[in-house]
Each structure stands twice: as structure tokens, then as C-alpha cells.
Amino acid sequence: MVGFSRAVTISDGYLPAESCITSIELQQNGSGFDLYCFSRDGLGIAMSELSADGSLRDRGGQSLGTAGQMPEDILLLNTQNGSALVYSGSYTTGFSYHSISGNGALGGRAVLNGAAAPGALRAFESVETSAGTLVYGALDGMGGVGVWRLSGSNRLDLIETMPLLPGSAEAARDLALWQTGGQSWVLAAGTHSNALTLYRARPDGRLEVQDSLMPATGLAVSDPSALVVAESGGSSYALLASAGTHSITVIALNADQELAVVDHVLDTRDTRFEAPHLLETITVGARTYVLAAGRDDGLSLLSLLPDGTLIHLDTIVDEEGLSLQNIATLKAAATTTGIAVFVGSATEPGLTRIDIDLGTGAAVGQMGQSGSAGDDLLQSGAREDNLSGGDGNDILIDGAGEDTLWGGDGADLFVLHWDDARDRIMDFDPNEDKIDLSAIPGLYDVSQLSFREMPNGIRITYGSDRLDIRSVDDTTIRAESFTNANLIGINRPPSGRLDEPVFRGGSSSDRLTGTLRADRFEAGNGADTVTGSDGNDTIFGGAGFDVLSGNAGHDRIFGEDGNDLILAGFGNDFIGGGAGNDVLRGWDGADTAFGGDGNDVIWGENQNDRLFGEAGADSLYAGAGNDVVGGGTGRDLIYGGSGDDLAYGGGDGDRIFGLDGRDTLFGEDGDDIVHGQFGHDLIGGGNGADSLYGGVGDDTLYGGNQNDLLTGWEGQDRLYGGLGNDVLLAEAGDDFAFGEAGDDRIFGGAGRDVIGGGAGNDRIDGGAGTDLGYGGTGNDTMLGGDGADTLFGEGGNDTVLGQFGNDVIGGGAGNDLLHGGFGSDTLYGGPDADRFLFNPTDGADVIGDFQNDIDTILLSSRAYTLSVRNGDAVLDYGNGNRLVIEGDFTSAGAANAILSNDLDFL
How many CB atoms are closer than 10 A to CB 43? Predict the structure, then answer.
């Protein structure tokens, strides 16, 4: 199997033995390479010759003079004087370079003329175009990408800088060049937005933005740190290392020049690219390899498959005699014996060379066909295939359907995907072969797998996927022989590219547990228990009493038939109970729940939920948050909880409780009972004889159709009876109560109330407080109660009684009966034949519009003294009790004569 075979550290040569190698560059030289090693503390460049057979020969070096001239990146550039080794970075004052002679020797240090001082240049690439030689650089301090043109006079002039994103001055961490079909493209990674930007190079070398990826559009990375472009199987890919997420992301570069993430892997304890900052790719034959290094003192080798998938092949860890601590630089070259990798450390001296054994070859087989005697890459298609690797160290990749894999002789790698099918490996050798399950979404640990040892091998199951492994010698394979290192390798978190895992139950009672991926569960019939774990899961309970748990993630859960218990867990979940008496609990997140048929119980819990009981007598508890709750048909019970809730009772007689918050509650059809409770609520009864209670707070209540009961309770409430013979109880507070149509009974209660009867024969009682009342049309009865009230009977034959306090009473149109009651009252009968009632102990009342021979004064006693004061007739009962009749009376005798026919004694 392909992997690291030999490692050695070289400390002799031009540089001092204690020198740390901080930058490396390779230049093709015939069949071999010239190797240039920069040392910041050694203040020099060492040169070696790497022959085609992999042997390395020292070729001397060149002094750099001072530490202020160390490179951040190195570039091989063709100038008018030949090849040059150009370097720049955060420690330089310009583009420094060394000319390279025909035999690879370096000249002295010089500076390219005309170069703008790129003191914050992190990386650069060059390309030969019809416009000349162009250099593209990643700008750190200045931000974005710089474009330089190399002129005939050996000048390197800055012609443009381009931002990473429109309007930004963000620094670029790294860049890479991609060429296809004669067109040049530049990719750059940002340090703050975590964005990857693709630029198209125009014929003059200037750049225009073609596309970009960022976390909001599917690039789940933080702190991008290295960027390379590679080819595999005829397809182009960008590989982005990100230190903040300890990840390597593969982005497809297609003919449409649109960026698309195709794979994303994370470092584990079994790999060595924690906080990766170095990537190196190399293609040998038909295979592309990736080397990755981070801060965890080692190096990982991966293979880039033609579809963009990364497969972990091997890892090497720092040990005595190697310089793999804090790797600072990394380069690789193909030799006739494999791959030579050169590594420099920022803290350990010397140059470490690591050889990679490629085996016998690198042929790529066809889908569903047999391999050769070499190292084949065979991949199944979307059918049931038989793959046979033959001799060599082969990679066999299963596809959709039930596949059968034969590795043959050699150290083979079997790569399995999630396909909800039974796959078979027919000749597995635990001592040589390896299985890679990292492509299965959500699989991070062997403890998630089920192992069943067989007489001739072992069976591994994951959900409804099954892998039968037959040993090469037909003996049992022990479960303990499989570890994370030899079975999983790297972590592959959820992404839109990976297939959704499907867990299927049977007709019995199943227990299904998901992964960290977006899982799909189809539990089937039976009393099933399904646990979705992390990820955005989809769960179908099927028939039977099911217990369905989504846990973390934005889940979609459907109980279907049966009395189900659904626990959505964290995330913004969608829950459907289906048929049966279900219990649904949303928990954390903005959840949406539908009870379906049956008498359901639904809890929204925290955040802004949407709960709908649908058919049946449901109980809905919204919990905290600004929730929307609908009862549906059936006699439902609804609790809004804390927050500003919106609740609809639906059909039949519902009970609704708003609890805390500024709630909007509608009973809709049926005889509903609605309580606003705490907060300033809006309550509507709808159709049916409803009972509405505002509770504490300034509430607004609408009775709707039929005969409703409206109770304001505490606060400054507004009550509207609507159609029907309603009862309105304003209770405490300065309320507004309007009966509207129907024969209503309205009670103001304590406070300064405004009361209107509306149409119909209403009864109005102002209660305690200084009230203002309007009878409206109809024959109304109005009682002022305590306080200085103002009452107007308006249209109809009204009875208006001031009761206690100094009241103002108006009868309005119609033949009204007016009685001020106790206190100093003022009465106006209106235009029709009205009756004014006065008792000897009522106080000092005034009739302001008495009509002789039309109106009537009803007196319960004749024990008064008649006099005229300022033209008004005064009937004085003594002790401050008197009735004043305003008019133009000239004397007591005249008044007595005029009023003789208008007084009626009871």
C-alpha cells in the first residue's frame, strides 16, 4: 500500500548544522531537480541536486547577508537574463532575486528594478501570457491580490490591486494559479471573511471577479491558511487548508467557473494536520497525492480521487532524528523509485527527507472491471458491480448497490460509501489490507458500528448498511482488530455533497440511532425508538407507538400512524404527529409542529414556535417566545406561555390562555373560553357564545357573533360585544366597553369608564368611578353607580338612573325616564315626552330642558316649598334636597299654575 517508507534528516552541506530550513523550492533540471533550501537563522541558501533515481548531491550555496532578507514565499521566474529565484515577504523591502545559471548555481542577491515594495506579500505565482510574464501576489497588509508585469528591461511593475470581495480591504492569506483551455484564473483566500475568490485574468493580465465562496454560501471554514490547485482524473480542484477549523476543503473548478465544495475533511488523533498551514500536491501517473502539515509535529499523506474525494493513506510523526516539529516548509518531487518529500522545521535544524513507496504502478481501472498487475484504482458505478484488483496495491471504491470487492494480492484499500445496501469484501487480509469508511457521513468512531464475528470473517453494520468481510484464509476476524486509525482515518463532517444516510426499520419494534450527519429514518411498523443525534435529520415513525428524538440539528419528524412521542430537541424543527393521540415536544429552537388527527399534546418550549393541533381535542403549550398556535377542529386547550403569542382556537369550543406577554387570541368557531391573563392582549371570540377574560393589563376584547361574555379584569380595557346579547364586565381600570348590536348587559366596574350600548335594548351599569355612558339606539337601562357620571340614553325609550354622585344625565330621543339618584344631578330629557323622578332625599337636582305639557315630573312626596329663583322653579324639601326646574317662571303662583298638570305624585 502507498505510504511513507523511509525518513532521514540531512544536516551537512552548505548551511551550518544548526540551521533551520524555513523555505524550499524545486526546479526541474533535465531528469532531476535542483533543490534550494532557505534558512532564516543560517542566513543563506543551500543548493542540492536531486537525481531521477532519488539520490541527493550537495551543490554549495549562497549567503543572504542579513536576517532582514528572509523570504515569505519563493518563485521561479524567467527574466530576460534567464531563470531567477525570486523571493519576497513580510521581512523584505522589495523583490529580491538570485539568477540561476545553466547548471543551477545561484548568483548574488539583487533587486528587480521597478518593483513596488511588497513588504506584506504572503505568496505569489507567475504565468507566461501574450501580454508578457505576469506575477500575481497575495497581499497581506495592503489587502487583496496584486498584479505585476515583468518588462523587457527586467522591471517588475505593479499594474493593479484587486480586493478579495467588492469594497473590502481584506488581507489575502494565499493564492493559487489555475490554467485551463488557454485561460488563466487566480484563486485567493481571505483571512477575515473566510472567503475564497476566483478571478478571471483578462488578456492584459488584470483581474475580474468570477465567483466566490464563503461560510454563508457553503464554505464551512475559519482562518484559511494554504491554497493549492491539483488535477485528478481530468478534473481540476482547489484544495484549501484552514487552521481555525483544522480542515482541508476540496472545491471543484468546472467549465462554468463556478466554485463548488465537493469534500471537506477534518484532522483527527490519527492524522497530523491540526491547524494546517502547508499543502503540497503531486501527480504520479494517474494518481494525485496530497501532503498536509500543521502544528502537531507530523505529516499526513492523502489521495485525491477523480471525483474530488480525499482518502487518507498514511501519517508520519516526529521522532528522534527527524525535523518534523513545527513544520515550516514542504516540497515533493517524483523519482523513479517513488516520491521524495523534503521538510523543514522552524524549530529543529536540518532538512528531513521522507520517501513515499508507490508500489508497482498507478493504473486506473474502469468501473466494474478487473484491475491489472499494477496498483489499480477501481470504482463501482450505480449498480451491483464486481471489482477485482488483481495484483498490486489497489484502491477499490464501492458505489450504489450491492457490490462485491476482490482485492487480490498486494496491500489493498477498500473504500466504502453509505448506500443502504449489503456490500462484500471477499479476500481481506488484516495484516496488509485496509478498509476506509470515512466517506460514510456522520461516522467518527468505531463505537458507532456494530460488529458480528463470523466463522470466515466479520460483519460490520451501520444503520441499515451492512458490510460482510471474508478473510483471505477463511478464519474469523476479531472486532478488536479494527480501530479508528485503520477503519476511519479522517473525519468527514456533514455537507450537501454527501448522500443522506437512511436507517430503515422492519415490522417489529426497532431501535435506530443516527449519526452526526443529516440522517433519514424510516422506522416502519412496530413500536420503534429512533434517536437522530446531531445533524438535520428526517424521521418517519410509521405505524405503531413510536418514540422519535431529533436531538441537535434542524430536524423533520413525522410520527405517522399510532400514538407517538416526538422529542424534537435542539434546532428549528418541523414536527408532524400524524394519526393518533400524539405527544410532541419542540424544546429549544423555533419549531413548527402539526398534531394531525387525534387528541394531541404539543409543547413548543423555547423560542418562536408555530404549533397547530389540527383535528381532535388537542392541548397546546407554546412556552417561551413569540409563538403562533392554532387549535384546529376539536375542543382544544391552548396555553401561550411567555412572549407575544398569536393563538387561534379553530372549530368547536376551545379554551385559550395567553399567559404572559402581549398576546393576540382568537376563539374562532364554537363556544370558546379565552383568557388573556398577563400583558396587553387582543382577544376575539369569533363565532359562538364565547367567554373572554382580559386579565391583568390593558386588553382589547371582541365578542363576535352570538351571546358572549367579556370580562376586562384589571387594566384599561376596551370591550366590544359585537353581535348577540352580550355581557360586558369591564371591572377595574379606566375601561371602554361598547355592546354594539344586541340586547347587552354592560358593567363598568371600578374606574373612569366609557360605556356604549349600541343597538339593542341594553342594560348599562357604570359601577364605581366617574363614568361616561351612551345608551345608543334601543330602549336602554342605564345605571351610573358610584361617582360623578355622565349618561346619555340617546335613541329609544330609555331608563337612565344616575344613582350615587353628582351626575349629568341626558335622555336623548325617545320617551325616557330619568332619575338622578343621590347627589347633585343635572338632567336633560331631550325632545320627546320624558319623565323625571325625584325623591325628597335625592339631593339638589336640576332639570335643564323641561317641556311644559310634554314632560312629567314624578314626585314621591308633596312636602316641598315652591319658589322661583332667577326664573327657575325650585321645589325645596329641606336639608339641601331640592329640585330646580330651569325656565322663565315669574312667580311661585305662576310656576304652580304652569306645573300643576306636569307633576305626578306617586
Answer: 18
Closest CA to 344 of 711, 588, 36, 75: 36
Contact 123/146 with Cβ under 8 angstroms?
no
Measured CA distances, 693 to 562, 624, 673, 700, 757 (Å)? 37, 21, 8, 10, 19
Nearest CA to 339 out of 791, 7, 89 is that of: 7
Q: At residue 665, does pLDDT exceed 60? A: yes
Q: Which amino acid is at 431?
A: N
Burial 261-298 (b: 16+ CB within 10 A, else e): bbbbbbbbebbbbbbbbbbbbbebebbbbbbbbbbbbb
**Separation CA 427–CA 480 (nearest Å):** 19
pLDDT in tens, 676-706: 999 999 999 999 999 999 999 999 999 999 9
pLDDT digits (tens, 9 = 90+) for 488-539: 878 887 653 444 556 777 777 888 887 666 778 888 888 989 888 777 888 8
Return the pLDDT at 365: 43
> CB 254: neighbour CB atoms within 10 A?
13
Which residue, chain included where needed, has cell 481555525?
Answer: 244
For the segment 532-585, what is each residue's pLDDT rounded down to a tens digit?
Answer: 877 788 888 888 888 999 888 888 899 888 899 999 888 888 888 889 999 999
Closest CA relative to residue 259, chosen from 283, 227, 297: 227
Dihedral, 847, 848, 851, 852 alpha carbons, nearest 10: 60
| Run of H or E residues at 894 | helix 892-899
**Burial class for 432, CB neighbours closer than 10 Å (0-12, 13-18, 19+):** middle
Residue 360 confidence (pLDDT) above 70: no
767 φ/ψ sector (left φ>0, alpha ψ -120 to 50, else beta): left
Give DSSP secondary structure letters for 756-823: E--SS--EEE--SS--EEE--SS--EEE--SSS-EEE--SSS-EEE--SSS-EEE--SS--EEE--SS
